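hey so u asked for the seq, here:
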Amino acid sequence: MTAALLLLITAALSGMILILLSNFLTFPGLRDACPSAIDLRISVLIPVRDEVGSIGTTVKSLLRQSYPRFELLILDDHSRDGTVGAARKASQGDERLRTLPGRPIPSGWLAKNWACHQLAAQAGGEILVFTDADVRWQASALDSLLCEFQRSGADMLAVMPTQQTVTWTERLCVPLMALALHAYLPSVAVHRTRFPLLAAANGQCIAFSRAAYDRLGGHASIRDNILDDIGLARQAKRAGLQLRLVEADGLIFCRMYRDWRTVREGYAKNILAGFGGVAGLLAATFFHWLIFLAPWVLLGLGFAGANVPGHPFWAGLLILAGLSLRGLTAWRTGQRALDALLLPVSVLLMSAVAAQSLWWRVRYGGPLWKGRRAIP
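ran it, C-alpha coordinates below
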Protein backbone atom coordinates (compact mmCIF):
# COMPACT_ATOMS: atom_id res chain seq x y z
CA MET A 1 0.00 0.00 0.00
CA THR A 2 2.76 2.45 0.92
CA ALA A 3 4.72 1.57 -2.21
CA ALA A 4 1.64 2.21 -4.37
CA LEU A 5 1.19 5.58 -2.68
CA LEU A 6 4.80 6.51 -3.34
CA LEU A 7 4.46 5.46 -6.98
CA LEU A 8 1.33 7.58 -7.39
CA ILE A 9 3.01 10.67 -5.94
CA THR A 10 6.09 10.03 -8.09
CA ALA A 11 3.97 9.87 -11.25
CA ALA A 12 2.12 13.08 -10.40
CA LEU A 13 5.24 15.07 -9.59
CA SER A 14 7.07 13.71 -12.63
CA GLY A 15 4.25 14.89 -14.90
CA MET A 16 4.31 18.33 -13.29
CA ILE A 17 8.08 18.61 -13.72
CA LEU A 18 7.78 17.76 -17.42
CA ILE A 19 5.10 20.42 -17.89
CA LEU A 20 7.23 22.98 -16.06
CA LEU A 21 10.27 22.22 -18.22
CA SER A 22 8.21 22.55 -21.40
CA ASN A 23 6.85 25.90 -20.21
CA PHE A 24 10.36 27.17 -19.53
CA LEU A 25 10.98 26.69 -23.25
CA THR A 26 7.65 27.86 -24.67
CA PHE A 27 5.99 30.33 -22.28
CA PRO A 28 6.86 33.85 -23.52
CA GLY A 29 7.46 37.02 -21.54
CA LEU A 30 6.89 40.65 -22.42
CA ARG A 31 9.94 42.33 -23.89
CA ASP A 32 11.04 45.68 -22.58
CA ALA A 33 12.12 48.43 -24.98
CA CYS A 34 10.08 46.87 -27.76
CA PRO A 35 8.33 49.73 -29.58
CA SER A 36 5.26 48.33 -31.31
CA ALA A 37 4.90 48.42 -35.07
CA ILE A 38 1.14 48.56 -34.55
CA ASP A 39 -0.43 51.99 -34.77
CA LEU A 40 -3.85 51.33 -33.27
CA ARG A 41 -5.97 53.15 -30.74
CA ILE A 42 -6.11 51.34 -27.39
CA SER A 43 -8.84 51.52 -24.79
CA VAL A 44 -7.60 50.72 -21.27
CA LEU A 45 -10.67 49.77 -19.23
CA ILE A 46 -10.82 49.63 -15.42
CA PRO A 47 -13.89 48.71 -13.35
CA VAL A 48 -13.59 50.09 -9.81
CA ARG A 49 -15.39 49.74 -6.51
CA ASP A 50 -13.94 51.22 -3.33
CA GLU A 51 -10.37 51.51 -4.67
CA VAL A 52 -9.40 54.91 -3.28
CA GLY A 53 -6.16 53.52 -1.87
CA SER A 54 -4.82 52.25 -5.19
CA ILE A 55 -6.49 53.96 -8.15
CA GLY A 56 -4.40 57.14 -8.04
CA THR A 57 -1.08 55.34 -8.46
CA THR A 58 -2.51 53.19 -11.24
CA VAL A 59 -3.85 56.19 -13.16
CA LYS A 60 -0.48 57.94 -12.92
CA SER A 61 1.38 54.85 -14.16
CA LEU A 62 -0.95 54.51 -17.14
CA LEU A 63 -0.83 58.15 -18.15
CA ARG A 64 2.99 57.91 -18.27
CA GLN A 65 2.92 55.29 -21.03
CA SER A 66 5.30 55.74 -23.96
CA TYR A 67 2.62 54.52 -26.37
CA PRO A 68 0.61 57.63 -27.24
CA ARG A 69 -2.65 56.47 -28.81
CA PHE A 70 -4.83 55.32 -25.95
CA GLU A 71 -7.78 56.31 -23.82
CA LEU A 72 -8.31 55.39 -20.17
CA LEU A 73 -11.88 54.62 -19.10
CA ILE A 74 -12.80 54.02 -15.48
CA LEU A 75 -16.28 52.82 -14.54
CA ASP A 76 -17.33 53.41 -10.95
CA ASP A 77 -19.35 50.49 -9.59
CA HIS A 78 -21.10 52.43 -6.81
CA SER A 79 -17.98 53.18 -4.77
CA ARG A 80 -18.45 54.57 -1.27
CA ASP A 81 -14.97 55.98 -0.65
CA GLY A 82 -14.17 58.69 -3.20
CA THR A 83 -12.50 56.45 -5.75
CA VAL A 84 -13.51 58.56 -8.75
CA GLY A 85 -12.29 61.77 -7.14
CA ALA A 86 -8.92 60.16 -6.46
CA ALA A 87 -8.65 59.03 -10.09
CA ARG A 88 -9.46 62.49 -11.44
CA LYS A 89 -7.02 64.14 -9.07
CA ALA A 90 -4.25 61.77 -10.14
CA SER A 91 -4.90 62.53 -13.83
CA GLN A 92 -4.32 66.28 -13.33
CA GLY A 93 -6.86 67.04 -16.01
CA ASP A 94 -5.42 64.68 -18.63
CA GLU A 95 -8.14 64.37 -21.29
CA ARG A 96 -7.28 60.73 -21.96
CA LEU A 97 -9.09 59.81 -18.74
CA ARG A 98 -12.87 59.45 -18.72
CA THR A 99 -14.85 58.32 -15.69
CA LEU A 100 -18.24 56.70 -16.10
CA PRO A 101 -20.97 56.05 -13.53
CA GLY A 102 -22.06 52.41 -13.32
CA ARG A 103 -25.69 51.58 -13.99
CA PRO A 104 -27.65 49.25 -11.67
CA ILE A 105 -26.72 45.59 -12.05
CA PRO A 106 -29.34 43.71 -14.12
CA SER A 107 -30.69 40.37 -13.00
CA GLY A 108 -28.42 37.49 -13.98
CA TRP A 109 -25.22 39.55 -14.14
CA LEU A 110 -22.23 39.56 -11.83
CA ALA A 111 -21.04 43.02 -10.84
CA LYS A 112 -17.59 42.95 -12.47
CA ASN A 113 -18.85 41.42 -15.70
CA TRP A 114 -21.56 44.08 -15.94
CA ALA A 115 -19.02 46.84 -15.29
CA CYS A 116 -16.70 45.50 -18.01
CA HIS A 117 -19.63 45.19 -20.41
CA GLN A 118 -20.46 48.86 -19.87
CA LEU A 119 -16.83 49.86 -20.36
CA ALA A 120 -16.58 47.98 -23.65
CA ALA A 121 -19.74 49.67 -24.90
CA GLN A 122 -18.13 53.09 -24.35
CA ALA A 123 -14.66 52.20 -25.63
CA GLY A 124 -13.47 53.58 -28.95
CA GLY A 125 -10.26 51.57 -29.29
CA GLU A 126 -9.33 48.89 -31.77
CA ILE A 127 -7.58 47.06 -28.91
CA LEU A 128 -9.40 46.63 -25.59
CA VAL A 129 -7.27 46.13 -22.48
CA PHE A 130 -9.19 45.15 -19.33
CA THR A 131 -7.22 45.67 -16.16
CA ASP A 132 -7.70 46.25 -12.43
CA ALA A 133 -7.35 49.25 -10.14
CA ASP A 134 -4.36 47.77 -8.29
CA VAL A 135 -2.30 46.91 -11.39
CA ARG A 136 0.77 49.06 -12.05
CA TRP A 137 2.35 49.71 -15.44
CA GLN A 138 5.95 50.49 -16.33
CA ALA A 139 6.22 53.28 -18.90
CA SER A 140 6.94 50.88 -21.79
CA ALA A 141 4.29 48.30 -20.83
CA LEU A 142 1.64 49.18 -23.42
CA ASP A 143 4.29 49.24 -26.16
CA SER A 144 5.50 45.81 -25.03
CA LEU A 145 1.97 44.43 -24.82
CA LEU A 146 1.22 45.53 -28.39
CA CYS A 147 4.54 44.12 -29.56
CA GLU A 148 3.61 40.71 -28.12
CA PHE A 149 0.10 41.00 -29.53
CA GLN A 150 1.59 41.42 -32.99
CA ARG A 151 4.36 38.82 -32.56
CA SER A 152 2.07 36.09 -31.25
CA GLY A 153 -0.83 36.64 -33.64
CA ALA A 154 -3.18 36.80 -30.67
CA ASP A 155 -6.86 37.62 -30.79
CA MET A 156 -6.90 37.45 -26.98
CA LEU A 157 -3.68 38.05 -25.06
CA ALA A 158 -3.80 36.94 -21.42
CA VAL A 159 -1.03 38.73 -19.52
CA MET A 160 0.17 37.35 -16.18
CA PRO A 161 1.23 40.37 -14.11
CA THR A 162 4.22 39.99 -11.82
CA GLN A 163 2.82 39.60 -8.31
CA GLN A 164 4.22 41.69 -5.46
CA THR A 165 3.98 40.17 -2.00
CA VAL A 166 4.98 41.62 1.36
CA THR A 167 3.36 39.88 4.34
CA TRP A 168 4.02 36.22 5.05
CA THR A 169 0.54 35.06 4.08
CA GLU A 170 0.86 36.86 0.73
CA ARG A 171 4.27 35.30 0.17
CA LEU A 172 3.04 31.81 0.98
CA CYS A 173 -0.24 31.89 -0.97
CA VAL A 174 -0.10 34.29 -3.92
CA PRO A 175 2.83 32.59 -5.77
CA LEU A 176 0.83 29.35 -5.86
CA MET A 177 -0.94 30.86 -8.90
CA ALA A 178 2.36 30.58 -10.74
CA LEU A 179 2.78 26.99 -9.58
CA ALA A 180 -0.68 26.09 -10.88
CA LEU A 181 -0.10 27.82 -14.22
CA HIS A 182 3.43 26.69 -15.01
CA ALA A 183 3.38 23.18 -13.53
CA TYR A 184 -0.17 22.10 -14.40
CA LEU A 185 -0.93 23.65 -17.80
CA PRO A 186 1.40 23.28 -20.80
CA SER A 187 1.36 26.53 -22.77
CA VAL A 188 1.80 24.60 -26.02
CA ALA A 189 -1.58 22.95 -25.43
CA VAL A 190 -3.17 26.31 -24.60
CA HIS A 191 -1.77 27.93 -27.72
CA ARG A 192 -2.17 25.07 -30.20
CA THR A 193 -5.46 23.39 -29.34
CA ARG A 194 -9.07 24.54 -29.27
CA PHE A 195 -10.09 22.43 -26.27
CA PRO A 196 -11.82 24.95 -23.93
CA LEU A 197 -10.60 23.29 -20.73
CA LEU A 198 -7.03 24.03 -21.83
CA ALA A 199 -7.47 27.76 -21.32
CA ALA A 200 -6.06 30.20 -18.81
CA ALA A 201 -6.10 33.93 -18.16
CA ASN A 202 -5.68 36.44 -15.36
CA GLY A 203 -8.37 39.10 -15.09
CA GLN A 204 -5.75 41.63 -13.92
CA CYS A 205 -4.74 42.17 -17.55
CA ILE A 206 -6.47 40.82 -20.65
CA ALA A 207 -6.22 42.35 -24.14
CA PHE A 208 -8.51 41.71 -27.11
CA SER A 209 -8.79 42.99 -30.61
CA ARG A 210 -12.18 44.67 -30.80
CA ALA A 211 -13.29 42.28 -33.52
CA ALA A 212 -12.35 39.24 -31.41
CA TYR A 213 -14.10 40.58 -28.31
CA ASP A 214 -17.31 41.11 -30.26
CA ARG A 215 -17.02 37.73 -31.97
CA LEU A 216 -16.79 35.78 -28.69
CA GLY A 217 -19.78 37.69 -27.33
CA GLY A 218 -17.93 39.96 -24.92
CA HIS A 219 -18.70 39.90 -21.23
CA ALA A 220 -22.36 39.19 -22.02
CA SER A 221 -21.27 35.65 -22.91
CA ILE A 222 -20.03 35.07 -19.34
CA ARG A 223 -22.38 37.41 -17.50
CA ASP A 224 -22.98 35.06 -14.55
CA ASN A 225 -19.51 33.46 -14.43
CA ILE A 226 -17.46 34.44 -11.39
CA LEU A 227 -14.35 33.22 -13.23
CA ASP A 228 -14.64 35.98 -15.82
CA ASP A 229 -11.04 35.60 -17.01
CA ILE A 230 -11.16 31.83 -17.50
CA GLY A 231 -14.67 32.13 -18.93
CA LEU A 232 -13.51 34.59 -21.59
CA ALA A 233 -10.51 32.41 -22.44
CA ARG A 234 -12.76 29.40 -22.94
CA GLN A 235 -15.20 31.43 -25.02
CA ALA A 236 -12.29 32.55 -27.19
CA LYS A 237 -11.35 28.94 -27.85
CA ARG A 238 -14.95 28.01 -28.62
CA ALA A 239 -15.09 30.87 -31.12
CA GLY A 240 -11.93 29.63 -32.85
CA LEU A 241 -9.86 32.62 -31.76
CA GLN A 242 -6.14 32.66 -31.02
CA LEU A 243 -5.58 32.71 -27.24
CA ARG A 244 -2.04 33.50 -26.16
CA LEU A 245 -0.46 33.64 -22.70
CA VAL A 246 2.48 35.83 -21.68
CA GLU A 247 4.31 36.62 -18.46
CA ALA A 248 4.59 40.34 -17.73
CA ASP A 249 8.16 39.92 -16.43
CA GLY A 250 7.95 43.02 -14.24
CA LEU A 251 6.55 45.39 -16.88
CA ILE A 252 3.06 45.02 -15.41
CA PHE A 253 2.77 44.17 -11.73
CA CYS A 254 0.20 43.92 -8.98
CA ARG A 255 -0.10 43.55 -5.24
CA MET A 256 -3.36 41.64 -4.97
CA TYR A 257 -3.80 41.44 -1.20
CA ARG A 258 -2.46 43.03 1.97
CA ASP A 259 -2.97 40.53 4.81
CA TRP A 260 -4.37 37.10 5.69
CA ARG A 261 -7.98 38.28 5.69
CA THR A 262 -7.81 39.67 2.15
CA VAL A 263 -5.78 36.68 0.93
CA ARG A 264 -8.30 34.24 2.40
CA GLU A 265 -11.39 36.06 1.19
CA GLY A 266 -9.94 36.93 -2.22
CA TYR A 267 -9.05 33.35 -3.07
CA ALA A 268 -12.16 31.93 -1.40
CA LYS A 269 -14.27 34.03 -3.76
CA ASN A 270 -13.08 32.06 -6.80
CA ILE A 271 -11.68 28.76 -5.61
CA LEU A 272 -14.94 26.79 -5.50
CA ALA A 273 -15.85 27.72 -9.06
CA GLY A 274 -12.26 27.22 -10.15
CA PHE A 275 -12.38 23.55 -9.20
CA GLY A 276 -15.87 22.96 -10.57
CA GLY A 277 -17.82 22.76 -7.31
CA VAL A 278 -17.64 21.10 -3.93
CA ALA A 279 -16.53 17.68 -5.15
CA GLY A 280 -13.77 19.16 -7.31
CA LEU A 281 -12.52 21.40 -4.51
CA LEU A 282 -12.39 18.52 -2.04
CA ALA A 283 -10.60 16.34 -4.59
CA ALA A 284 -8.06 19.09 -5.33
CA THR A 285 -7.42 19.66 -1.63
CA PHE A 286 -6.82 15.95 -1.10
CA PHE A 287 -4.53 15.83 -4.17
CA HIS A 288 -2.34 18.62 -2.83
CA TRP A 289 -2.17 17.00 0.59
CA LEU A 290 -1.13 13.80 -1.16
CA ILE A 291 1.69 15.17 -3.32
CA PHE A 292 3.02 17.94 -1.08
CA LEU A 293 2.31 16.76 2.49
CA ALA A 294 2.23 12.95 2.37
CA PRO A 295 5.96 12.61 1.55
CA TRP A 296 6.80 14.51 4.75
CA VAL A 297 4.52 12.20 6.73
CA LEU A 298 6.08 9.11 5.16
CA LEU A 299 9.56 10.42 5.86
CA GLY A 300 8.66 10.93 9.51
CA LEU A 301 6.99 7.52 9.79
CA GLY A 302 10.11 5.88 8.40
CA PHE A 303 12.30 7.54 11.00
CA ALA A 304 9.78 6.40 13.64
CA GLY A 305 10.33 2.79 12.60
CA ALA A 306 7.52 2.17 10.11
CA ASN A 307 8.24 0.11 6.98
CA VAL A 308 8.42 2.78 4.25
CA PRO A 309 9.89 1.51 0.95
CA GLY A 310 13.10 3.23 -0.08
CA HIS A 311 13.33 5.17 3.16
CA PRO A 312 14.60 7.82 3.50
CA PHE A 313 15.63 8.44 -0.10
CA TRP A 314 12.34 7.94 -1.97
CA ALA A 315 10.26 10.18 0.29
CA GLY A 316 13.14 12.66 0.45
CA LEU A 317 13.33 12.89 -3.34
CA LEU A 318 9.58 13.51 -3.53
CA ILE A 319 9.90 16.30 -0.98
CA LEU A 320 12.75 17.81 -3.00
CA ALA A 321 10.69 17.56 -6.20
CA GLY A 322 7.77 19.41 -4.62
CA LEU A 323 9.99 22.15 -3.21
CA SER A 324 11.77 22.47 -6.56
CA LEU A 325 8.49 22.91 -8.43
CA ARG A 326 7.45 25.66 -6.06
CA GLY A 327 10.87 27.33 -6.10
CA LEU A 328 11.36 27.22 -9.88
CA THR A 329 7.90 28.64 -10.64
CA ALA A 330 8.58 31.41 -8.12
CA TRP A 331 11.93 32.17 -9.77
CA ARG A 332 10.35 32.24 -13.25
CA THR A 333 7.70 34.74 -12.15
CA GLY A 334 9.82 37.08 -10.06
CA GLN A 335 8.91 35.70 -6.61
CA ARG A 336 11.10 34.63 -3.69
CA ALA A 337 12.34 31.13 -4.50
CA LEU A 338 13.41 30.37 -0.92
CA ASP A 339 9.81 30.72 0.29
CA ALA A 340 9.34 27.32 -1.36
CA LEU A 341 10.84 25.77 1.78
CA LEU A 342 7.53 26.56 3.52
CA LEU A 343 5.42 24.77 0.91
CA PRO A 344 3.65 22.56 3.51
CA VAL A 345 2.50 25.72 5.31
CA SER A 346 1.25 27.11 2.00
CA VAL A 347 -0.80 23.97 1.43
CA LEU A 348 -2.38 24.24 4.87
CA LEU A 349 -3.19 27.92 4.34
CA MET A 350 -4.89 27.11 1.04
CA SER A 351 -6.85 24.39 2.82
CA ALA A 352 -8.14 27.14 5.13
CA VAL A 353 -9.11 29.15 2.04
CA ALA A 354 -11.05 26.13 0.75
CA ALA A 355 -12.79 25.83 4.09
CA GLN A 356 -13.79 29.52 3.93
CA SER A 357 -15.25 29.00 0.47
CA LEU A 358 -17.22 25.95 1.59
CA TRP A 359 -18.54 27.86 4.63
CA TRP A 360 -19.75 30.69 2.42
CA ARG A 361 -21.48 28.13 0.22
CA VAL A 362 -23.30 26.61 3.19
CA ARG A 363 -24.08 29.88 4.97
CA TYR A 364 -24.84 32.28 2.09
CA GLY A 365 -25.20 30.11 -0.99
CA GLY A 366 -21.96 31.44 -2.46
CA PRO A 367 -19.01 33.79 -1.95
CA LEU A 368 -19.07 37.33 -0.57
CA TRP A 369 -16.97 40.19 -1.91
CA LYS A 370 -16.82 43.87 -0.96
CA GLY A 371 -20.00 43.70 1.04
CA ARG A 372 -22.07 41.91 -1.62
CA ARG A 373 -22.85 38.37 -2.64
CA ALA A 374 -20.58 37.59 -5.58
CA ILE A 375 -23.23 35.54 -7.37
CA PRO A 376 -26.40 36.68 -9.16
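DSSP finds 14 helices and twelve strands in the chain. The longest strand covers residues 42-48.
lmk if thats what u needed
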